[in-house]
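Let us work through a complete example step by step.
Step 1: write down the sequence.
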Amino acid sequence: MKFFNLGLSEIIFIIIIALIIFGPENMVKTAKDAGKLVRKMTKSPYWKEVWATKRELNELPKMLVKEAELDETIRDLNKETQKMSSSVTASVTELIKEVEEPIKKTDGELKRETAALTPQPEKAVSTDEGAAEEDKKSS
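Step 2: predict the structure and record it as tokens.
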């Protein structure tokens, strides 16, 4: 239970202190006077204005967000970011395909040319026969 932001134990402590200060005889009269003072304060226009201001201050962040439409703006930005991300991904994928196709084609052509230029291994000739053939050619 909260009353003026005071808990039950705090209220009991205040009553005990008041009982010690005012004594049991004046306690009833003092409590009536305190009740009248509290009622007068809470019924006053100033008190109502203070509470209205407190409510406005509590609602201020919500009102600012609502007026600025931050939630909608954030959602719109997220959607645009996702669209941009997907379009960039698609563009990069297309670029990679465009680059890979000529590379693969050139690689295949280079392999064919290398295969054509590489001498085909002929029948293995023994070193004695190869030396004999060289002697015949040089003579």
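Step 3: interpret the result. The mean pLDDT is 80.
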